[in-house]
Amino acid sequence: MAVEMSLVSVGALFFLALLLLVLIASQRNTHSQGKDKKSKCAGVKIGLLQHLYQFVRSSSKPSLPGPPSRFLIGNMMELTHDHLPIHLTDLGQRYGSVYRLKCGKTTMVVLNSCEVIREALVKKWSDFAGRPISYTGDIVSGGGRNISLGDYTEEWRAHRRLVHSALQRCCQRSLHGVIERQALHLRKVLMDYQESAVDLSEDFTVAASNVITTLAFGKEYDKTSPELQELHHCLNKIVALWGSSWISALDSFPLLRKLPNPVFACLLKEVARRDAIIKQHLNSYKAQNKINEDAITGFLLQGLDKHQSTESGELLTDVHVHMATVDLLIGGTETAAAWLSWTVAFLLHRPEVQTSVYEELCRVLEGRYPKYSDRHRLPVLSSLISEMLRLRPVAPLAVPHRAIRDSSIAGYFIPKNTVIIPNLFGAHHDPAVWPEPYSFKPERFQEGGGGSARFLMPFGGGARLCLGESVAKIELFLFTAYLLRDFQFVLPQNECSLPDLTGVASVVLKIKAYKVVACPRP
Is there a binding annotation on residue 519? Predict the structure, then answer.
């Protein structure tokens, strides 16, 4: 490495000497030229000096490691693996916590440890707050006008402030009660199954969805509602298609956009269907005689008027409310439902953990249902939630970031517009931080267990911290507490194999379908 660095330094010095000779020669030449030519020559000098600065700056830092690139496609094949988070984590074991992948003209840098992810997203957040320039991302996000995929601009910041205020308001006024009501309704649904073997994923989806639709529109749905089923089918399809290599290839290889692509055609169809459903919801809401400002949508619509009358910057429109609703539905439904399915599956693998949580709930709460304020008195339950957030961050690769200026991570030079992939799954399975990283051990987060919540980043960090983090924490705590207070989850009698814990990776990490019996507690 030292020899390589010295050769690079010698090359940089040689390049500098050559450039100085060119500048001296051009300086002599300018004395005999007119004023216009002199300014043109000065522009060339500035450009050359800028290139020299970037060259010397990048050459003074070690080059990023990574797998060998193939002609034309680069490392595209590395992104086609069935379980991308595990594959990127395995590459991290080979190339280190920071490595690069090339896809067409795009350079990606994968971050695989909490330390380097925190450096990029928190300590240097202003360098890496951008989103990749994405052809397909613009289509899914209404031209980049949603919180999750929008680039870091004044418009985005105004939009985020408005949605954040709406979420904070609902958390203070009604969130706890809404989740409690949905948790009790979920209890009734599970009781009605009368200990039969069922796949609970759809019930978890309905419960999580009703939390969001109640907060957003003041509206709840029954599981059999055609409107709800259509919305869930549409959102599930978009999430699944968005993770396809047929879609991501369109960003790295623009020429492919001119070729037939059935997967992309299906994505366009589902996005149009999604927008029609959300538009219908918003129009129905606005047609009410009085807009309820306690609902998120009402607060956002009222906020548009206030923003337009007081801000001289970017204008927020109904499109921003529309896309905020999409963010809330996908972020608050798919992720929470997937997490609950994962939790029950892991508990089937270690039923004694269920018993420990149940006994703690009975001992501490003396028969009543828990409140979120009880979490500090329930360390066993809290450790279970922390371990599940570690093992299965539902967005395992977060959402890619983009360097909005030249910067560095862990001593490596990162040029402007480099795409940054925070591998949260890899950071949460780092053997240097987590002994037996793939084992389900909630006790690691209990006193003396050696685990520390400060190494958890399930919601990302910095300026791009998940907007719904506070809602998600309350929701996961209360749903888990209610379920384990009232039920013991066991395998069906005719089922001899436990659920597969590998999962299906897309934008959201989901577990493969399985059946379980919910036995009521005495």
Answer: no
